[in-house]
Design a protein that fits this description.
heterodimer; A: alpha+beta; 2 domains; two-stranded antiparallel ribbon; 33% helix; B: alpha+beta; Flavocytochrome C3, Chain A, domain 1; six-stranded antiparallel β-sheet; five-stranded parallel β-sheet; 36% helix; globular
Chain lengths: 267, 597
């Protein structure tokens, strides 16, 4: 949430600069070298990072007057609900659509905003990364309810509104990758990470989903599984959707313990 | 690959495309699913309000027939009625299916799905999951399709954009050509049937409430290859969106439902802080012009009035914006009733709407028009099907809130068996060996090469800006024939200038310049369909309003507009509407809430 002052109006720059600088980390292609380029654009109120990038794209000339290639980044919904435009802005992973220039300048006290791609995923070009592995993780934990079919079988199980709201909080995850970027345990895809654990939890909480809990927990008990969590709790702090990630990890660990116990009893 | 070896391709991974892909995979056939973004990031995520279905668990005597009547009436009788009726009958089953898939719908105290009221109806008919129902429904289908993907039935091509259809000598669709947005590689997708589910064309208007992927490009390509485009002129403009530098974000009409007041300073040059402007110097124009309904006039009227006030120069700060003011309502009440949507405003604008009036303006939101389809979602091109916002079939001249999600799923659920049936019966003949796929791929490669080679002086992003401005100024809320004509002239000029663009990216790896150029060309052609459809329709109906022809004219225009591509100009014709179930009556929301016949 943006900072607001006593009048509940957005806290804005008292003396906004004429121009602002964007320092952008460039990379031509996967595996290529990185370099920095600085662009200068006129300051406008209500500018967000995406609008600034759109400006730069139209006429990509660096601050020192050199014609260059337009920076490449991903964008789609621009309402912080699709997750695609995530990048590292002034050192923090977040969506570029909801990163407002005034807030960034106020926080940094400078006229420069630094944009980098997320560092934990293959960097396709400039600010664009490939997060395919996050979707693969969802397969690994069977993040779905097993249905007999999509034909009409009437309503599902009755569920309390409390449970529905608890599940809704997990279900808002947009697979943006902020949690993995912030996680000190996650490198080179060694750990399945908080998002997949929370999605497993989402379905383990569902009356029908619960039936196949074993498959989901199996997906979390391998070498890249839940035991990699070092309890740094960075994930829950950076999650733009406030998904209760640490709660999911805690509850899933409990499920695994209970399941192991009952599994043993079944033998 | 299924035992019978059918090949079906679905283009678009939003609600409609995923619904179709799931049904096809479930029937035991493999699917190629082509999407410009990872399907979980499709525009369906933006839908907030909910999904309609007459489940009737509130003891209100709601029924699919009433849902059907509301939809047809809300659409000003322009929709063919049989598919609307079928959708409304399917709607409760669709909601139950999503319930079984685990969508966290809000619940009643008994643990049943809760329903709320939405525009254009008297019943609690809208199921919802928080303030992001579209996101939740999309995720449910994404999850089911992922299961089929893991089982090898769905082959996803995410980050691929359809460029054209592959048609044989008899204009039969035999697959498509798509481009990898990272490598610019083109690939043939041979298919017995193709389902298009590519969503709306909001980006034709520059800024809209649509996602940046909603260019209508693939649909326009199909149109330019012979697919009929229907009712293009019907574009829904939502009265309250949040103007942004990059897009228009929706502000739900529940803000007015809870007492929000729309106003502008009486003095157009007034630069004072809104709270310092005394009531006597504020113009509450909706309340003044519509004393009975005030700020809760129907969507199209509110949109037209706000637009007009700004055109006359009364917009706040001389810009296209008016105040939507909630500050007279206690902050605690607002937080309780509207918390989620007010947070969106605060996130993007920064001001807290509980204490500072919001600045809003109408925004292009939805296309009622789209590819022409019959009642089984078949386009006029054999082997080509369409579903969701990219088809024209359900909403007539105006869409009711919370009907888009249900129509997307319905379209996908009908298109899938329809495509399977077609694919099972179509003769492949020599299409696998006669080189038509390779020839089409070559044609598309040449277009790309030409774009890359061009060294003209035009900037494609500036052409897009001009396109958006002309379309927004002249082909949205209030339409005049002279301006529509001038817009079409402008579009012809832009199409010509497009030929002189040079892409400003020398690095072709993952470049956005070539895909954007392809999209822009297609947007320009679809813009002509929208503009000329509006020019030709001399009446006012639903979202289409001409002050010079203020009434609905059923005798001349209770007809579907059909546009067919020709090099010169779109060729328009008109088709009778199937009104066999509900007789058209005057659409009039001004006479109190009991609009029922």
């Amino acid at each position: 949430m943006s900072e607001t002052n006593g009048h509940h109006e957005k806290k804005r720059l008292d003396n906004p600069p004429q121009t602002i600088e964007f320092k952008i980390q460039r990379r031509e292609k996967l595996g290529g070298e990185t370099r920095w380029e600085v662009f200068e654009i006129p300051y406008r109120r209500n500018l967000n990072v995406i609008s600034a990038l759109m400006d730069i794209r139209k006429n990509p000339v660096t601050k020192d007057g050199r014609q260059t290639t337009p920076p490449v980044w991903d964008m789609s919904c621009l309402e912080q609900v699709c997750g695609i435009c995530t990048m590292v802005i002034d050192g923090r992973a977040r969506q570029s659509c909801s990163a407002l220039v005034d807030d960034l300048l106020l926080a940094s006290g400078s006229n420069t905003i630094t944009l980098q791609p997320m560092s934990k995923f293959p960097n396709v070009r400039d600010l664009k990364v490939d997060r395919t592995r996050m979707f693969d993780h969802l397969k690994q934990v069977h993040a779905w309810v097993e249905l007999d079919g999509s034909h009409d079988l009437g309503p599902g199980a009755q569920i309390s509104n409390e449970t529905a709201q608890e599940r809704y909080a997990f279900s808002r995850c947009m697979t943006c990758g902020c949690c993995l970027e912030a996680c000190p345990q996650y490198f080179e895809d060694n750990y399945i990470g908080p998002q997949a654990i929370a999605q497993a939890r989402l379905f383990n909480m569902h009356p029908t989903g619960k039936i196949t809990i074993d498959e989901r927990l199996d997906g979390l008990m391998g070498e890249d599984g839940i035991t990699n969590c070092g309890n740094a709790q960075n994930c829950v702090q950076v999650c733009p959707m406030s998904v209760p990630l640490t709660k999911a990890i805690y509850e899933t660990n409990r499920d695994i313990t209970v399941n192991a116990l009952f599994g043993w009893l079944k033998k | 690959m299924s035992s019978n070896g059918l090949k079906i391709a679905v283009v678009g991974g939003g609600l409609a495309g995923l619904a179709a892909a799931m049904k096809i995979a479930e029937a035991g056939h493999s699917v190629d699913l082509i999407s410009v973004v990872p399907v979980k990031r499709s525009h369906s995520v933006c839908a907030q309000g909910g999904i309609n279905g007459a489940v009737n668990t509130k003891g209100e005597g709601d029924s699919p027939w009433k849902h059907f009547d509301d939809t047809v009436y809300g659409g000003d009788f322009l929709a063919n009625q049989p598919p609307v009726q079928r959708m409304c009958e399917m709607a409760p089953k669709i909601i139950y299916l999503f319930d079984r898939m685990g969508v966290p719908f809000s619940r009643t105290q008994e643990g049943l799905i809760d329903f709320r009221r939405f525009g254009g109806t008297l019943h609690h008919r809208t199921a919802f999951a928080g303030a992001s129902t579209g996101q939740q429904l999309l995720y449910a289908l994404d999850e089911q399709v992922r299961k089929h993907e893991a089982a090898g039935m769905v082959n996803k091509y995410e980050g691929w954009e359809m460029l054209s259809l592959v048609l044989d000598d008899h204009q039969v669709c035999r697959g498509l050509i798509a481009m990898n947005l990272q490598t610019l590689e083109l690939k043939e997708f041979p298919a017995d049937a193709v389902i298009m589910a590519t969503g709306g064309p909001g980006l034709i208007f520059g800024k809209s409430t649509n996602s940046m992927t909603c260019t209508g490009s693939a649909v326009s390509a199909a149109y330019q290859q012979g697919a009929k485009y229907a009712n293009g002129e019907f574009i829904q403009v939502h009265p309250t969106s949040i103007p942004g530098e990059d897009k228009l974000r929706l502000m739900s009409e529940s803000a007015r439902g809870e007492g929000g007041r729309v106003w502008v300073p009486k003095n157009p040059g007034d630069k004072r802080n809104p709270k310092d402007i005394p009531t006597a110097e504020r113009w509450y124009f909706l309340e003044e012009k519509y004393p009975a309904y005030g700020n809760l006039v129907p969507r199209d009227i509110a949109t037209r009035e706000i637009f007009q006030v700004c055109l006359e120069g009364f917009g706040v700060g001389g810009e296209n914006q008016v105040y939507l003011d909630l500050t007279h309502i206690p902050a605690e009440t607002l937080t309780r009733k509207l918390g989620a949507i007010l947070e969106i405003y605060e996130m993007f604008v920064g001001d807290d709407p509980r204490f500072v009036p919001m600045r809003i303006f109408p925004g292009v939101h939805y296309s009622m028009g789209g590819l022409w389809v019959d009642f089984e979602q078949r386009t006029n091109i054999p082997g080509l099907f369409a579903a969701g916002e990219c088809d024209y079939s359900i909403h007539g001249a105006n869409r009711l809130g919370a009907n888009s999600l249900v129509s997307c799923v319905y379209g996908g659920f009908v298109a899938a068996p329809s495509a399977i049936e077609y694919a099972q019966n179509v003769e492949r003949g020599s299409t696998e060996s006669n080189g038509i796929h390779a020839a089409e791929l070559k044609r598309q490669q040449e277009i790309n090469d030409q774009i890359i080679r061009n060294e003209g002086s035009e900037n494609q992003y500036k052409i897009h800006d001009e396109l958006g401005k002309w379309m927004t100024d002249n082909v949205t809320v209030v339409r005049y024939n002279d301006k529509l004509k001038a817009t079409d002239d402008k579009l012809v000029e832009l199409i010509d200038r497009f030929k002189h663009i040079s892409i400003n990216d020398s690095n072709l790896w993952a470049t956005q310049a070539v895909p954007h150029a392809r999209q822009l060309w297609n947007m320009l052609h679809l813009a002509r369909v929208i503009t000329l459809g509006a020019l030709n329709r001399d009446e006012s109906r639903g979202a289409h309003y001409k002050p010079d022809f203020p009434d609905r004219d059923d005798e001349k225009f209770l007809k579907t507009t059909i546009a067919e591509f020709s090099e010169e100009s779109p060729v328009l014709s008109y088709e009778e509407v199937d009104i066999g179930l509900i007789e058209p009556r005057k659409r009039d929301y001004t006479k109190g809430k009991s609009k029922k016949a």
